[in-house]
Specification:
CATH superfamily: STAS domain
Structural class: alpha/beta
Strand content: 35-45%
CATH topology: Transcription Regulator spoIIAA
CATH architecture: 2-Layer Sandwich
Distance between the termini: 41 Å
Largest sheet: 6 strands, mixed
Number of strands: 6
Number of helices: 3
Radius of gyration: 14 Å
Order of helices and strands: EEEEHEHEH
Length: about 110
């Protein structure tokens, strides 16, 4: 499997990582202290770790915009549910992802 990759510091550049395999995070300053991570492509596998690392680098008001996400897996849904539980807003969340995140949060809530 061959792919190209370009990586920049999330705080200095706009693009966090671009891969020919179809994943990208753009860090946008929405004003009023809100940072939006615009996620595009397939959020699965190693990309879940990349998003998790990006989330850990941020402080303050944070949102994840999912309008350009084409696919998620179970690990991605777990991360999104946890992020939302910790106060991160999920913007433009496709209905199937929203339903899956809600089920994941309900299952987690049932465990506690």
């Amino acid at each position: 499997m061959q792919f190209s990759s370009r990586t920049r510091d999330l705080h200095d550049g706009v693009v966090a990582r671009v891969q020919a395999m179809g994943f990208r995070i753009d860090r946008l300053d929405a004003g009023n202290g809100l940072i939006v991570l615009l996620v595009s492509g397939r959020l699965s596998g190693e990309h879940v770790d990349t998003l998790g690392n990006a989330l850990r680098q941020e402080s303050g008001a944070l949102a994840i915009d999912l309008k350009n996400v084409s696919l998620v897996d179970g690990d991605a849904v777990q991360l999104l549910a946890l992020a939302e539980s910790n106060g991160t807003e999920l913007k433009n969340c496709p209905k199937y992802i929203r339903e899956w995140v809600n089920r994941e949060r309900a299952a987690r809530h049932g465990e506690n």
